[in-house]
Amino acid sequence: MPTENKIPVYLYNTLTRRKELFIPLHPPRVGIYSCGPTVYKDIHIGNFRTFVMTDWLRRMLTYNGYDVYLVRNITDVGHLQNDTEESGEDKLEHEARTTGRSAYEIANYYTQQYMRDADEMNILPPDLSPKATDHIPEMIAMTEQLVERDLAYIRNGNVYYDVSHFSGYGALSGNTVEQLRTGGHGRQQMEIADDKDAPEDFALWKHGGPERQMNWSSPWGTGFPGWHIECSAMATKYLGEQFDIHTGGIDLTFPHHEDEIAQSEGATGKQPVRYWVHGEFLVIGNRKMKVGNAQEADDDETQEQTIKMSRSKGNVILVSTLKELGIDPMAYRYLLLTAHYRSKLNFSDESIIAAQNGLNNLRADLAILPRETFTEDTPWSAEAEEMRTAFQKAISDDLDMPVALSLTREAARNNKIAPAERWRLVLDFDRVLGLRLDSVEASTPRVVSEEVQALVRQRDEARKARNWKLSDQLRDQIRTLGFEVRDTAQGTELA
Ligand SMILES: [Zn+2]
């Protein structure tokens, strides 16, 4: 049931560093590209924060009547262990070498795990999940275009992007060539720097070798693609040379997205993305919860400061870890709703337990509401319509999900709205929140029949007369009708 009344949507654009009115290129269609997981290890809940953000963005636009087409890639090659310096081994090849499994087996395994966890988190599947390894020809073609346009050069079977030839470099992240050369941030110490013209240049194609499992032939010899080229190649292929929104975690702004702009715009001459939307980190503070099968986390260590969740910091929590702790993945989603996506969010024992309690309370409020069937054209009451407008405004204002959540909690309890309509209203909001509130079962109050009431009266009489035998017989009879009895000073109580 798409909402007919479109209201203005505002998004914070990393490229312009301000909140902007969202105007799609080809309404009602909206094309979104979202950087997906690198499938060499389990995807942790910090990564899922970004995927949930994109899920809310998509659901919000759908609620507003847009026709969203979402592409989220699977990175299964070329992502190096140290991406900022572009050094180290390919993460998948490293995992293969150290575990004795094939790189393809590893990629398949972690892709399946990721999809399972994304489903647990109620993240709607993308319209398309292209894999990097299925798009090597497209990446080679784009690299050839960049060589032809004098934006890339070939050295010893490697192809490098010539950053000094792309004047727009640094527009997204602020890391211009001058900035990089003064050593502020970037690729200064590189293991493979000796055949590059400048340290800020980055690899589009790398020379391979027999030590690798993943190699392809190319015009420059056997090798494999650099990490950044896959997103340019796949986004252009599936969304066109220009599309509406690109999302990812804030750490992807540089170098990944800066390089993506250089590649795509370099190849096509067009600015590829209208709105860049980046999600902030999940940080870990004061975790004391014991985890049965800890991944790499050191659970005995209480971390006083808050630090970003990352594999290298050793504080990785998975969706399965939450479940082992008795935390519903929807409680984690609820926790994510409590902070704006551009703010850091603290994950701690206290915060996740508070989220679980908040979700339980909301479910309890919903369980007592009667269920009625509404058709799409059943009109809303004036009060409900007012709440819907407030909700729509909140989500459309750069995804103000904390306000959307508090409106949902208010809707469940708003006694100016009829109980059955409250249920309908909360489910309408949950099309965006995605807390699976439609699975909350009604707690049907049990009806005590005349027959049971009569038996209870007889039993009270029997107890007064100290006729224990009859009292016990009546208790058993009541039990067969589905009620337990409890003796109190006031007489028989049913449970
Ligand atoms: Zn990407």
What secondary-structure arrangement, pairings included, does this model have?
Elements: E1 10-13, E2 18-21, E3 29-34, H1 45-63, E4 67-72, E5 80-82, E6 87-90, H2 91-99, H3 103-120, H4 136-148, E7 152-155, E8 158-161, H5 177-181, E9 202-207, E10 223-225, H6 227-239, E11 243-249, H7 253-268, E12 273-279, E13 282-284, E14 307-308, H8 319-324, H9 329-337, E15 345-347, H10 349-367, H11 382-396, H12 401-413, H13 419-433, H14 450-464, H15 468-480, E16 485-488, E17 491-494
Parallel strand pairs: 3-4, 3-11, 11-12, 13-15
Antiparallel strand pairs: 1-2, 5-6, 7-8, 8-9, 9-10, 13-14, 16-17
The structure holds zinc ion (ZN).
Describe the structure.
- The chain is of the alpha/beta class.
- It has three domains: 10-279, 3-Layer(aba) Sandwich (Rossmann fold); 288-443, Isoleucyl-tRNA Synthetase, Domain 1 (Orthogonal Bundle), CATH 1.10.730; 450-494.
- 40% of the residues lie in helices and 15% in strands.
- It has 15 helices and 17 strands.
- The chain has helices at residues 45-63, 91-99, 103-120, 136-148, 177-181, 227-239, 253-268, 319-324, 329-337, 349-367, 382-396, 401-413, 419-433, 450-464, 468-480, and strands at 10-13, 18-21, 29-34, 67-72, 80-82, 87-90, 152-155, 158-161, 202-207, 223-225, 243-249, 273-279, 282-284, 307-308, 345-347, 485-488, 491-494.
- The strands form six sheets. It has a four-stranded parallel beta sheet, with helices on both faces. Strands 7-8-9-10 form a four-stranded antiparallel beta sheet.
- A hairpin with a 2-residue loop joins strand 7 (152-155) and strand 8.
- Helix 4 packs across helix 7 (253-268), helix 12 packs antiparallel against helix 13 and helix 14 runs antiparallel to helix 15 (468-480).
- The longest helix is centred in the N-terminal third of the chain and has 19 residues, at 45-63.
- The radius of gyration is 29 Å and the shape is elongated.
- The two termini are 42 Å apart.
- The model is unreliable at 185-192 and 289-305 (pLDDT under 50).
- It binds zinc ion.
